[in-house]
Amino acid sequence: MEKYIYDESNGLWYELQGDYYIPCLTLPTEKENKPIGLWGQRHKRYLQECKKAVYITLLTSGRLNSYLADIDEQATEMMFRLVEQMADKEGVTEQLKTERPMLWVGRINEIQARAREIVNAEIIYA
Questions:
Q1: 71 vs 115: CA distance, rounded Å
Q2: Which of 30, 50, 83, 113 has a CA-to-CA distance to 121 between 20 and 30 Å?
Q3: Record's superkingdom (predicted)?
Q4: Weakly modelled stretches of the chain, pLDDT under 70
């Protein structure tokens, strides 16, 4: 038996695996390979665990990487915007940073934690 055969009726190549011919299928390649950061990785894990159909659809259509890169970019921008807005609203300024650095660190950490929760709820796990 031949290792590879071509079926003209459907245009697919088949490879011999044991006693069976298995179609040689490949995923489509994405046009751009953008880097995926922390937020994109979290969303990917969420899709894999909770939204399997969406994950498989994006993966097999060749759009998963660009989708995750877009989610990562949106989440990063939202995080920076929220931290900046909350810090301004609560009076956490550069002056506080120079006068009372430990207080500033504590307040910024609280603000970042709240902003992370908002980003997780509205983008990552939505």
A1: 16
A2: 30
A3: Bacteria
A4: none
